[in-house]
Amino acid sequence: MTTTQLTSEIRKKQSFLCVGLDIDLNKIPKFLLEKEDPIFEFNKAIIDATHDVTVAYKPNIAFYEAYGIKGWKALDKTIRYLNEKYPDVFTIADAKRGDIGNTASMYAKAFFEDLNFDSVTVAPYMGRDSVEPFLNFENKHTILLALTSNNGAYDFQTKQLEGRELYKEVLEVSKTYANSNRLMYVVGATKASYFTEIRKIVPNAFLLVPGVGAQGGSLDEVCKNGISENVGLLINSTRGIIYASNKEDFAEVARNEALKLQQQMQAYL
Amino acid sequence: MTTTQLTSEIRKKQSFLCVGLDIDLNKIPKFLLEKEDPIFEFNKAIIDATHDVTVAYKPNIAFYEAYGIKGWKALDKTIRYLNEKYPDVFTIADAKRGDIGNTASMYAKAFFEDLNFDSVTVAPYMGRDSVEPFLNFENKHTILLALTSNNGAYDFQTKQLEGRELYKEVLEVSKTYANSNRLMYVVGATKASYFTEIRKIVPNAFLLVPGVGAQGGSLDEVCKNGISENVGLLINSTRGIIYASNKEDFAEVARNEALKLQQQMQAYL
């Protein structure tokens, strides 16, 4: 999917909502545990109930990996379901990978080709030759961690690296990478005041924004400071939507929560 | 495994060699491709042939992930084989993971509990709360990326962050993390001149050193500048050992290459 298509989907659905699919078997409704593949059944129900107000889905790969082969099968089924039934939805493998050339290519192949995700999150610490192998893939997007929403972000990301904060250096340097037009960035919503600064460096890049809702960020502040001409925002919510109810009505309740966010978003479109 | 046990294994085998198990089906001997699980058969033969001169094995997870469920099964069989047949060997999941609290715990659980690796490599960019969940596990080790062996390391790692290079800041800050005694560090051998500096900050921590051999680092320089009282070095070689031959004799040739490195290493012990 191109960013032009993504922007057009956003305008059509009047939503830049991304729903996180971080599946914890302790949190999903009990009755699903009797099914053959509870993770996939849960995801399918959430997707079916929310797809018309959602432009992107983001499984965090850790949650699947933690269930071993069963988890990978559920991930595989989920992404196939999305690609077959809702091909206009943008898909994000939240993997935060980062390794050198050769190995980065293997990760890129796994997520972009085998699983056919539209995008993958990547860590910047190892620099250019850990990112460019991902950027080689046409119509695929690499979402680089810039400023994350956790407290640990203050350990290094906001410290001054040769005159500017490390996260700004990451943004600037990454613009010089080959095929940098395929870059997007993770920017935590808990630091909405930084959005103005970030837009000076990457005026039109898509920003994936976690941390709205459960993690405490303000949707309003993010939208005001972060929105660009092509919208350029994907705002993620996970727990506030998928775990809003753990009863039989979980999908319906999830839809209501997604709808609330979509209704707030359309005011900015 | 404790670091005391690791040092004792190193002294017993007179080796601090780590063999990388980065399996590429295009590079392994053709006759293995007819087997039911070529990746595992290859690993098993390499391990059986090299275990007495090797203290650690390091599968890079990307190579397994790239083969999907088949790859995960091969990884699972490989680590089980190592743990059952050679429990005194130190095992490293080279995963370079990095994510926040909740998610980091899922990754830690996957590698430390489900797969029962002794250690996992972790990226530092997201800071304290992305590393400490790994450090919670007793007798397990978290190998933090400090200074990597690729060119991209110059993008950020060697730049000045508030008065000292970022990689030094990573070393210093990580020492304040809870259970920091369970930390080890990745330090690329292509920058052997940095080892003296690094030893000033972490005098006794184990350093996992990739980049000797194929990536161009000098074993001699690393040993001279990097060795500590408890040895504190694990020097990795992958391609120079496991792909030294792709014929029927691959395991025997791999053993000879491992033996050569072990013989160089014993001079420093």
Give a written overview of the molecule.
2 copies of one chain form a homodimer. With 269 residues, the first copy, chain A, is α/β, with parallel strands linked by helices. Chain A has a single domain, classed as TIM Barrel (Alpha-Beta Barrel). Helix content of chain A is 44%, strand content 16%. Chain A has helices at 3-13, 38-50, 61-65, 68-85, 101-114, 128-135, 153-156, 166-174, 195-201, 219-226, 239-242, 250-266, and strands at residues 17-20, 56-58, 90-97, 119-122, 141-147, 160-161, 164-165, 183-187, 207-209, 233-237. The first copy, chain A, has an 8-stranded parallel β-barrel, surrounded by 5 helices. In chain A, helix 2 (38-50) runs parallel beside helix 4 and helix 2 runs parallel beside helix 12 (250-266). The longest helix of chain A has 18 residues, at 68-85. The radius of gyration of chain A is 18 Å and the shape is globular. The model of chain A has no long low-confidence stretch (mean pLDDT 94). Chains A and B meet through helix 3, helix 4, helix 5, helix 6 and helix 7 of A and helix 3, helix 4, helix 5, helix 6 and helix 7 of B.
